[in-house]
Amino acid sequence: MEQFYVFLQQLINGVSLGSIYALIALGYTMVYGIIKLINFAHGDIYMMGAFIAYFSVSYFHLGFLSALLVSMAACTILGVLIERIAYKPLRGATRIAALITAIGMSFFLEYVMVFFVGAQSRAFPNVLPALRIEFFGGKVFITGKELLIYGVTLFLVVLLQFIVRKTKTGKAMRAVAFDREAAMLMGINIDYTISATFALGSALAGAAGVLVGVYYSAVNPLMGMTPGLKAFVAAVLGGIGIIPGAALGGMLMGLIETFVIAYGQSTYRDAVAFAILILILLIKPSGILGSNVREKI
Amino acid sequence: MNMRKVLAALLVMTFVFGLLAGCGSSGSAGNAGGSAGGAAAGGAEETILLGVNFELSGGLAAYGQSKINGLKIALDEINAAGGVLGKKIVLKEYDNKGDNAEAVNISTRLMGEDKVVAMMGPVTSGRVMASVDVAKQFQIPMVTGTGTSAGITVNEDGSVNDFVYRICFIDPYQGTLAANYAADTLKVKNAAMLVNQSDDYSIYMAEAFKKTFEEKGGTILENSTFVEGDLDFKAALTKIKSSGAELIFCPNYYEPDALIAKQAQELGYDGYLLGGDGWDNLDHLIKTAGADALQKAFFINQYFPGDTTEKNQNFVKKYTELHKDAPPSFAALGYDLMYFVADAIERAGTTDPAEINKAMAGTTNFEGITGSFAMGENHDPIKSALVIGYTADGQYKVVEKVQ
Fold it and tell me: Among A1, A153, B319, B332, which residue has the fewest nearby CB atoms (within 10 Å)?
């Protein structure tokens, strides 16, 4: 029985980690779906989101919700600016040129932040009341922060699904992702649609950044590197370009990592996680939810 | 309304960031050119050129910054008192960003191109280990003030690295002390370890802890590892907690260990936490983990700012005036490092690197603010250490002093 409680606790840990990966992975997958660009700067937008929330809370004394909204808004603007300045001029260029620009953008954001705020971690102020809900006589418990992460992630994923499925902009996004030229001929404003995609993806990354800041109570300029990479992998795992796939991939990634540590050797955490990834991609090259269409390369 | 203002302010900030970033980088490039020119024009006659290869940015920046602050206080004192051998000391500083490859490049540049007579740094073990071969190749002494990994001075086959010295105690020594403290003072029988496997510093300390702790009849129930950049330790901590360990040995740097302390508390772990001198950033620990999470946390260190010697009080006063904060042990070791190198040059009576090397090896009674020491056969100093814990209001206190 004791083992079962530990299992439940680990499940709670895994879902929290997975939610964060899922939020970042959604942005990767949206951008890839629409312009076939792996936006490596995405993890750093997440970092910027965490910092904007950090400054809003520390210096402007905003509460959690206002900090979250400010952060998402600022990341939206940042994401659109990055797209306009760095990626748009390269839209006609080779894909590798855009990819290298994305990597450059990522380093630019990281080291501009190192320059201004220093590389040390900063402690994120506690903005949430300490809440702890216990089950089975305290053997298993869930904290307010964890509930918040689940709630915000679920809400944003549903909201995103709604925007993409039910609104006009969402329809335009799907059209552009399907065939950009045909969409253009149908009178869809490509520039606006791509900007909207970056805006949405960046807002999600900003939200993830705020959640991580609150959850781990630490922010630093290089915090986007590892989660960014893992979220990218999660997006591929779920089927890149597919929104529910990214959420599923992120969740799986978080759960696999947690359970490898819990029931295996923590040393092999990443090795096992990536071995599973390779296995899934061998069986289903387009990802778990991807349709098996051969891509011409 | 208020929200709109905040938004506008953030927007303006974003633009200013972009603009300043451009200016900032061109400015620092100009500085680098300037200092290089200055050193060349100075010539070898009037000054002694020493190299500094420190972690001044990146995740380890806090150590490098503290250390260079301490080092410069010593430098000013030495130069104000007439320098060494009648010559002023000039530093050639580079930032290795906490990166091993960068540290090697800088060591090569300092020794090969800039022709320094001795190099100080790097600050942390991984970077020092990477630079050892460069010092041996150019036959120029290199001293680290804070690189505590055993392999820096002594190779696996037992041979000592010529030209490589340190003035701090070694990781296995810290691990051994920590195990003694856990078994003898805290009376712990079952412990767990949570180790950063991407850093030699953590790995060596954990090995020594395990060896000593098991020799004393203790059991290591759980040995979890993580890698640089990890933020989530909850899975490992849940496992450790359910294993029934009474103590978690965390031989890492303060950033992950602050998160470990906090998450352990959130998971309801109520045993001890024990660390090494990588924890020496009290401010960060308290801010990130909170004083409550640190009530049963201790760490091994070699410096305490409250030490009452005149030398130390003079240093603490100067450091506090300049940096508005009590000096961390990295600053104190930076101060001692500068004096140690100056002392060796003085005793060598020349700026010939080979003679300075001999003088360093022959140090018998160096009086520093982190304790007096003689240089041992292994190029490790023979000195004392402290066990430090927190009081409820987040103040340092020395729990025990171990020779």
Answer: A1
Residue B402 lies in a domain: no
- Which chain B residues have a beta carbon less than 8 Å from that of A108? 21
Per the omega criterion (within 30 degrees of 0), is the bond before B141 cis? no
Structure tokens that stand for A95 in this block? 């894909």
Does position B245 have pLDDT exceeding 50, yes or no? yes
pLDDT > 70 in chain B, percent: 87
| Whole-angstrom distance, CA of residue A242 vs CA of residue A33 | 7
Same domain, yes or no: B162 and B178: no
Tell me the Cα Rg of chain B: 22
Residue B271: C-alpha distances to residues B223, B329, B347 (Å): 16, 27, 50
> The domain that contains B282 carries what CATH number?
3.40.50.2300
Encode pLDDT of A76-86 as tens digits. 999 999 999 99
pLDDT of B250 strictly over 80: yes
> B180 with B165, same domain?
no
Confidence check: pLDDT of B27 > 50: no
B219 and B128 share one domain:
no
Per-residue pLDDT reduced to its tens digit, B261-279: 999 988 889 899 999 888 8
- State the residue range of the domain holding B216: 171-301
Q: Mutation test of the interface with chain B: which of A216, A253, A263, A268, choosing the one with the most B Cβ atoms within 10 A?
A: A216
Domain membership flag for residue B321? yes
Report the residue from B18, B225, B235 with minimal CB separation from A258: B235
Which residues 19-38 of B have a C-beta within 8 angstroms of A?
20-21, 24-25
pLDDT at residue A297 in the model:
45
Whether residue A119 lies within 8 A of chain B, CB to CB, comes out as yes
Which residue, B235, B269, B301, sits at the end of a domain?
B301
The alpha carbon of residue B271 is apart from the nearest alpha carbon of chain A, in Å, by 17
* Residue B398 covered by a domain: no
CB contact under 8 A, B3 and A259: no
What separation, in Å, do the N-terminal and C-terminal C-alpha atoms of chain A show? 53
Instruction: Give a yes or no: residue B62 inside a domain.
Output: yes
Same domain, B335 and B293: no
Q: Where are the domains of chain A?
A: 21-224
At A103, which amino acid appears?
I
> A interface mutation test: which of B56, B65, B99, B231 has the most A CBs within 10 A?
B231
**Cα torsion A165, A171, A173, A176: sign:** positive
Residue type, B182: A
